């Protein structure tokens, strides 16, 4: 099922229905379908062949996202380029992906002018404000890409070195879409609000919505006040936010006065969420919270915690389960593995490994990295976790973030969850720093809620009471904000660098 199939399926349910909406203006399914054919023809006229790589550099914009389906209809490969990256990062991605064409929003014209001359393969550059003129021309025949071909290449973060290009096939995204529709509540014609970047999780979540003929309401910039307005105005049924933005939403002064009764499924993911904040969300937002766990290499749906799974049969909150990442999906096999490739029994901690049609084809032009990630015939996520007796998956930490102090393994995520349970903590990051006595010492950086004070000694005592002295940070620093990636994740490498230099 190619990317265009989701659009075409939605159009078959009514070409006049709204497909992509922003600022009160909608492109219908018919509009997007027609535009996708025009973009495919224009790409063919420009010499873009099936299998060629086409970058799209734009913020959240309906026209830019509609072009994704034109790229797919040509049989080319969609390469989302994050506009929040620095020029050098995006140049590196365009070079890594071998992009021959780039469609970009006019706001990034200066960035494109800076990097395009250094990319000899990039022969077609189209500003989106010139799109109509570029689309004008004689009809050109074009062939679709073969089944189960690469349809998308997405860059890994690159925070620990040169980024890698994750090759996702139409089967990968079809599996993700099927899992989404299996696990979460959907009614005909859902309304999905996209505030998070369409270059990331918010974008691929559009595909199941469009397969149902739903409307995607696009926010051009993140603003929680506007988010609440749009939920109420459009009777939004589905949305996605990373935990950091959920925390901010819970503190928003207008949350309690906004009508959220239309919501059926409020996805959260991309980073661990504090069980204490999640319990608050289940009350303040409603019994609609829905976790997803995955990564670029196994998109979105390795395991899932549907809204109903947050509660016990008697309707009370399933407190222990809130710390889990849900159950592995029915089309995914998940296991826990040690360093020697042995699968571990229930309750044992090790690396989370995955098999199935959700797993990527491999890293683009990087056979060594692909081989490393697929040792012993399983995809290695790099996350440490365990499965409980009921089949729920618990993600303990990233393998690279585990701290070994005094011979004990300390998982930074566990310490972060303990800190997040304190009412004065808005967000935090926990790292290990070299220590002559302990090998590594546990160090925390805390961002307090506005208009509150956080006392390091009080926080340390609070954590010690919850998880013991070994896991309690030896140092707690109070910062007004934390360094974050372009998608809002706390950058522990930047925290370590600042603390070491200080």
From TrEMBL:
InterPro entries in UniProt: AMP-bd_C, AMP-bd_C_sf, AMP-binding_CS, AMP-dep_synth/lig_dom, ANL_N_sf, ATP-dep_AMP-bd_enzyme
Every AMP-binding enzyme C-terminal domain range: 414-489
Domain of life (superkingdom): Bacteria
Keywords on record: Ligase
Keyword match Transferase: no
Keyword Transcription: no
GO MF, any single term: ligase activity, forming carbon-sulfur bonds
UniProt cross-references to PANTHER family, sorted A to Z: LONG-CHAIN-FATTY-ACID--COA LIGASE (PTHR43767), MEDIUM_LONG-CHAIN-FATTY-ACID--COA LIGASE FADD8 (PTHR43767:SF7)
Protein's name according to its UniProt entry: Acyl-CoA synthetase (AMP-forming)/AMP-acid ligase II
Organism: Umezawaea tangerina
């Amino acid at each position: 099922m190619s990317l265009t199939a989701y659009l075409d399926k939605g159009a078959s349910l009514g070409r006049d229905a709204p497909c992509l909406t922003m600022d009160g203006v909608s492109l219908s399914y018919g509009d997007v379908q027609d535009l996708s054919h025009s973009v495919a023809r224009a790409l063919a006229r420009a010499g873009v062949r099936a299998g060629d790589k086409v970058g799209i550099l734009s913020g959240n914009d309906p026209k830019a996202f509609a072009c994704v389906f034109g790229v797919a209809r040509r049989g080319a490969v969609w390469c989302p380029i994050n506009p929040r990256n620095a020029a050098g990062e995006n140049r590196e991605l365009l070079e890594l992906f071998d992009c021959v064409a780039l469609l970009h929003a006019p706001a990034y014209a200066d960035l494109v002018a800076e990097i395009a001359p250094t990319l000899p393969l990039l022969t077609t550059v189209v500003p989106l404000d010139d799109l109509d003129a570029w689309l004008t021309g004689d009809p050109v025949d074009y062939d679709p890409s073969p089944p189960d071909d690469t349809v998308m290449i997405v860059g890994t973060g690159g925070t620990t070195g040169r980024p890698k290009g994750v090759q996702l096939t139409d089967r990968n995204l079809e599996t993700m879409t099927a899992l989404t529709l299996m696990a979460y509540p959907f009614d005909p014609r859902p309304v999905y609000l996209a505030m998070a970047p369409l270059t990331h999780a918010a974008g691929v979540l559009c595909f199941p919505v469009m397969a149902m003929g739903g409307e995607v309401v696009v926010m051009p910039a993140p603003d929680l006040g506007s988010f609440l307005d749009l939920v109420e105005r459009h009777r939004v049924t589905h949305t996605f936010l990373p935990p950091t933005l959920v925390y901010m939403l819970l503190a928003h002064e207008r949350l309690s006065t906004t009508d959220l009764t239309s919501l059926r499924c409020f996805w959260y993911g991309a980073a661990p969420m504090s069980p204490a904040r999640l319990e608050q969300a289940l009350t303040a937002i409603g019994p609609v919270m829905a976790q997803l766990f995955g990564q670029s290499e196994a998109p979105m749906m390795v395991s899932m915690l549907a809204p109903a799974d947050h509660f016990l049969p008697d309707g009370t909150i399933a407190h222990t389960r809130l710390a889990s990442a849900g159950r592995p999906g029915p089309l995914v096999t998940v296991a826990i593995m040690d360093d020697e490739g042995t699968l571990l029994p229930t309750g044992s901690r090790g690396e989370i490994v995955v098999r199935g049609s959700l797993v990527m084809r491999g890293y683009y032009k990087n056979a060594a990295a692909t081989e490393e990630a697929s040792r012993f015939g399983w995809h290695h996520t790099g996350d440490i976790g365990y499965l409980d007796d009921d089949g729920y998956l618990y993600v303990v930490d990233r393998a690279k973030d585990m701290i070994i102090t005094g011979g004990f393994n300390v998982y930074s995520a566990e310490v972060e969850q303990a800190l997040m349970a304190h009412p004065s903590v808005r967000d935090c990051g926990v790292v290990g720093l070299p220590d002559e006595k302990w090998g590594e010492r546990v160090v925390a950086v805390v961002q307090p809620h506005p208009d509150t004070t956080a006392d390091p000694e009080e926080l340390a005592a609070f954590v010690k009471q919850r998880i013991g002295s070994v896991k309690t940070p030896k140092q707690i620093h109070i910062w007004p904000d934390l360094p974050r990636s372009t998608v809002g994740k706390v950058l522990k490498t930047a925290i370590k660098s600042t603390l070491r230099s200080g």
